Amino acid sequence: MGKNNSGTRRIQPILWISTLYFAMGVPFVTINAVSGIMYKDMGVSDSQITFWTALIMFSWTLKPLWSPFLEIYKTKKFFVVATQFAIGILFALIALSLPLHDFFKYSIALFAVVAFCGATHDVVADGTYIGFLTNKEQARYIGWQGAFYNLAKIISSGALVYVAGVLEKTKGVTHAWMIIMAIYAVLFFALAVYHYLILPKENKEEQKDGKTAGNVRKELLEVITSFFTKKNILWSILFIILYRFAEGFAIKIAPLFFKAPRTSGGLGLSTSDIGLIYGTYGSAAFILGSVLAGYFISARGLKKSLIWLCCAFNIPFVVYALLAYYQPVDLLPVGVAVVVEYFGYGFGFVGLMLYMMQQIAPGKHKTAHYAFATGIMNLGVMIPGMFSGMISDWIGYKMFFIWVLIATIPAFLVTLFVPFPYSENQKEETIN
């Protein structure tokens, strides 16, 4: 479609791919990780934080249901700019809500709208990438796409959390986080203006191609039906949900455990220390693990590698149990633990993504089915995350991280018996 549009040749793709995927990563990381640290600083309980910040991420699960309708109205560029501008306004409103008495109620509602806009932005960003790049260009820039998405983690959960910790000492907690939310707002306003000027724009009539709401609904029904009638699909769905089951518990509580006072079983770290550990060491370890996993799988094949990738993904959660038991005072063992866990996270996560691409997505509706698979995968993290705070409040941090280790068992069981309906050597063109 838009690949032959002359406008796409005037500007180097890297100039918009980098900022587009950075913008994609920020809302997800902010809601999933940064908001929890902010609410912990402001005295919200772990159970409230984990339940609501996990629940509002449901938009990323449901996004395949409204994504086809975005093809009918306006253009992808319009939706990219509109969602980024809307996210900027929402972050400004979140900043203004923090001094209010019922700040949690108002801010979490606004974060829920950020999640909807962020999920919609993901759809049109991926559509822009696929629609305006040739297959060769898509392969050339895929590494940059991942790098800038991970840069969002480094900036959001690293640099900005660190700055929040520094500002807390002079401005107080509330005003420190108001400034951080205002920075997010300015960032997204700037991104919206930049992408308005630089993003390629497809032909509106070419994009619509006679589509109506009626035939899009019919097409969506066909996509859903064909997805759930795939061979061994129920077992595959069980796999993609349970592979990350333990992570859903651990990832929500770990930063809150780091922040909690030592008298409550936590580590008593400052906000800036958490930002430094997660945003620099953790993110670097994640990227390194992801890169090495690619070489590991290419040498052995996915089927032979998958159980080892599952081990790498789930076994490192033991570091949190050790931290909870020993409660080290020094920052070094905490940093080492996060590096080990995030390296394993990056190494093991690649296996799950490749399984969805190669064993679930293939067929007539490959892109849509991959979107459905990633949406269902999100449930495996969201549901345990919603109840993680409630469980940790009930049994304490020490026993909670023992529970996380027990929760890894289903992942090993489904990985051992997960079906491979398609040969790894089968060419994509032969899959129908």
TrEMBL record:
Keywords: Membrane, Transmembrane, Transmembrane helix, Transport. The chain crosses the membrane at residues 14-37, 49-66, 78-100, 106-125, 146-164, 176-199, 233-258, 278-297, 306-326, 332-355, 367-387, 399-418. Residues 236-432 form the Major facilitator superfamily (MFS) profile domain. Pfam families: MFS_1. It is found in: Membrane. The keyword Transcription regulation does not apply. GO terms for cellular component: membrane. Gene3D superfamilies: MFS general substrate transporter like domains. GO terms for molecular function: transmembrane transporter activity. It comes from the Bacteria. PROSITE patterns: MFS. InterPro entries: AmpG_permease/AT-1, MFS, MFS_dom, MFS_trans_sf. Its main location: membrane. It is a multi-pass membrane protein. This is MFS transporter. It comes from Chryseobacterium contaminans.
